[in-house]
Amino acid sequence: MKRFIIVILCFVLSLNLVIAQTGDGTFGNPYTGTLTQDRIWYPDSYSGGIIYAMNITIPSGLTLTISPGAFNGGLVQFGTSSLTIDAGGTFIINPQTNVTVRTITNNGSMRLESYANEPGVASLIHRIYLGTGAVQTELYLSGGTTPENDYKWHYISVPVNNVTVSTFPTLNLVQYLESLVTGADNYPGWVAYDGFQYYLGTKTGPTFSVLSLGKGYNYYLVAGATYTLTGALNIADVDVPVTCGTGYPDSQGYNLLGNPFASCLDWNYIIDQYPPFFVNNAIYFTNNGLIASYVSGVGADGGTGTIPPLQGFFVKATANSTVTLPYEARTHNLDQQRYKKKSTGESYSSSDTISFVRLQLKHSPDSADLVVRFNNKATSEADKMFDAYEFSKTAGALNIWSTTGSVAYSINGLPFPESAVSIPVGMNVKTTGTYKLSSNELKNLDYYSVILKDLATNKTADLKKGEFIEFNATEGMTEDRFIIVITKSATAIPEYSSTENEFRIYFSSGLINIMPLSDDYSNAGGSVTIYDLAGTKVFQQNKIDWQGSGVLKQFTPQPSWKGIYMVEVKAGSQKFVRKINIL
Questions:
Q1: pLDDT tens sequence across 258-286
Q2: CATH number at residue 545
Q3: CA-to-CA distance for 72 and 49, rounded, in angstroms?
Q4: What's the pLDDT score for residue 3?
Q5: Separation between Cα atoms, residue 375 and residue 378, nearest integer Å
Q6: Dist. CA 152–CA 146, nearest whole Å
Q7: Do residue 458 and residue 370 come from a single domain?
Q8: Is the pLDDT of residue 346 over 90?
Q9: 129 belongs to a structural domain
Q10: SS3 71
């Protein structure tokens, strides 16, 4: 009998050792078992920002919280194991933290949080959900207006079925109906849940009472608030129909979709694995009052290829079609934030294989940017793969775009120029003041010059050298003042300074002056060629006999020559190039 009692006691002790939480959270020794007290896990303090766990149970009365810690980020990786929340147990994911687990059995409560004034949201990826416990997903939205008195509208989505409009207690919960856009204006597409058509100012419908998975919505509120969505999180593919009217391609075809999951959505994966036919590759969403855009590895105004949880986004269809949002496209982006989508990773700063220049317009503290990218598969027309339109010229405090033909782009994909290309730059500002144009990112254009020109002042800036242009602008839109000139090195004239003292080349008293500073070129034949900054030859004179040191030769510029020009002097077998400013 005594032996039997000892065996039972040993079994119970052994069972307790098995179910109590063990491990240190590392890859080789993950946390496992049952919590014995409340726990807060800080993945940012672990190697790689990851806590490893498997088969964790949260018993009644205890709480496991995943916290971003001091560095605002991190991942808890359960892998293919499970998380069990017993009745009375609680699992909390703080904003800006990420959890991946295969199976969740929830008979307690689970909460994905979003704090007031907190830019990030919680992110969860799971494949199987069991149990009858409560699930709450929070969404904080800022309210009111910007310093420029623009309303703070937000593109939102839901990862939960049967979310009613009463969850958002204002009239300004709006859907976008592409079918209502029958002209050159997008405004008729906006219709509130009660049928109020903003374009007409009347309640002519249609109405809606439930927010649909995969559909995006626009929302405005007077003051910031946190909203709670209740229900099990979606873990299934969602097919979203998109439409495109005919007759007005500049305004028709835009459809407001929504991320239907509680994690980021990898748009690149969708384009590669579930390519939506008759839908362009670019996406557009709100970001701090601006409209961010992203297409094929490049973002503008903070756009990335990972769409945050609870985020609505626009796509442009060219015909009636369907977009599949698959559960396999779910991902975590440890740098991703809801309202400030710029990340430190490649998703924002763009792939190292892409050739492009990013032009930034800045008026502290606000900034906006455009991108001109180059690919030999691109064309000068609007391309499905490489272009993102300038979705709004008036959103936020300032906007900037480039133009090819009659089309304005936030991301402009072009073929590499055979010689040179000039790209007009447009902008809209809401405050009169001093602005700065510069390039904050420029990659893989080693054999091209990249010059920014102010046509109003004749100022130029070599963007590859970090130069910039400061200028005064009045409130309003300007589309004919600035151009970016991209010139292939075969026609662009490089600065050559190894024999700097042998010729003096300068502009003075309305004349171009060229003077040898050495007798080495006496009676040496040569020529003078003048180029503008686009690499276009504007003047050439051959068979010039250079005489001794100090013998000046002068050339009269054409009246239209204003600004920076490159003068190439050939003397015998030598060539000398200088930059001059013709006033």
A1: 999 999 999 999 999 999 999 999 999 98
A2: 2.60.40.10
A3: 10
A4: 45
A5: 5
A6: 7
A7: yes
A8: no
A9: no
A10: helix
Residue 177 has pLDDT above 80, yes or no: yes
| Residue 541 shares a structural domain with residue 469 | no
Classify residue 132: in a domain, yes or no. no
Gap between the Cα atoms of 218 and 311, Å rounded: 10
Contact call for residues 320 and 278 (beta carbons, < 8 A): yes
CA torsion through residues 177, 182, 184, 185, sign: negative
CA distance 256 to 245: 15
Residues of the chain with pLDDT > 90, as a percent, come to 69
Residues 83 and 184 in one domain: no
Structure tokens at 349: 């700063």
Give burial (CB, 10 Å; 0-12/13-18/19+) of 8: exposed
How many CB atoms neighbour CB 170 within 10 A? 14
Beta strands 433-443 and 420-429 are unpaired
In a domain, 497, yes or no: no
Do 398 and 363 touch, CB atoms closer than 8 A?
yes
* Structure-block tokens of residue 140: 């904080």
Contacts by 178-183, CB closer than 8 A, 24 or more apart: 178/242, 178/243, 178/244, 178/245, 178/252, 178/253, 178/254, 178/255, 178/317, 179/243, 179/245, 181/245, 181/248, 181/251, 181/252, 181/254, 182/245, 182/247, 182/248, 183/248, 183/251
| Separation CA 202–CA 175 (nearest Å) | 15
Q: Which of 48-62, 382-396, 397-411, 504-518 bottoms out in mean pLDDT, i.e. has the lowest? A: 504-518
Those residues whose C-beta lies under 8 Å from the C-beta of residue 17, and which sit 6 or more positions away, are none
Domain that holds residue 469: 350-488
Q: Which residues pair with 441 in a beta bridge?
A: 358
Region of 491 on the Ramachandran plot (φ > 0 left; ψ -120 to 50 alpha; else beta)? alpha
**pLDDT-based confidence at 54, cuts 50/70/90?**
very high
- 510 and 423 co-located in one domain: no
Total number of domains constituting the chain:
4
